[in-house]
Amino acid sequence: MWVLLLGVAATAWVALLVVAPYLPAYAGAVLYGTGSLVCHQISERSFHVAGSQLPVCARCLGLYAGAWLGVIGRLWWGRVPALDSSRTARAAAVLAAVPTAVTWTFEVVGVWNPSNATRAIAGLPLGAVVGLVVAGAVATLHYDECVPPRPTAPRPPPPSI
């Protein structure tokens, strides 16, 4: 159930990011304000829809879309045994971060100025692995199965003086 709720939340977030330019001003302001907390929102590095910039840059959108794909993948396929070990999950995350790290590094050094589509596509693998790992962790939450603490025996009253 928790993974399903995570899937709904991830779907809503990505959908809201994409439709933000079409939302009423107050709802859009909340999204753009939230986006400013997690993203630089540089116009040249962002996608534009209907003439308006999205609340996050292309790379962040790729990360969020990848996370959404990871959560949906967990819902669709179930458990991913390879990511059950924290060691393999870390290795997968490092490997998935390579495209993002390469595009970011080349951009900072001034060797290459990737397109927004390239930035977004480079973020997909890292987002997907993080989405799979987080969804896998959420799937292990079973609050309804928690064992209540055993009652303790009452202490005898202290002796009177």
What descriptors fit this protein?
single chain; 161 residues; mainly alpha; two-stranded antiparallel ribbon; 5 helices; 2% strand
Sum this structure up briefly.
62% of the residues lie in helices and 2% in strands.
Radius of gyration: 22 Å
Q: Identify low-pLDDT runs.
A: none
Share of residues in strands: under 5%
Strand order of the largest sheet: 1-2
Strand runs, count: 2
Could you explain how this protein is built, in words?
The chain has helices spanning 2-19, 25-38, 58-77, 86-109, 116-139, and strands at residues 48-49, 52-53. It is mostly helical and 161 residues long. A two-stranded antiparallel sheet has the order 1-2. The longest helix has 24 residues, at 86-109. The chain is elongated. The mean pLDDT is 92.
Architecture blueprint of SSEs:
Blueprint: H1 2-19, H2 25-38, E1 48-49, E2 52-53, H3 58-77, H4 86-109, H5 116-139
Antiparallel strand pairs: 1-2
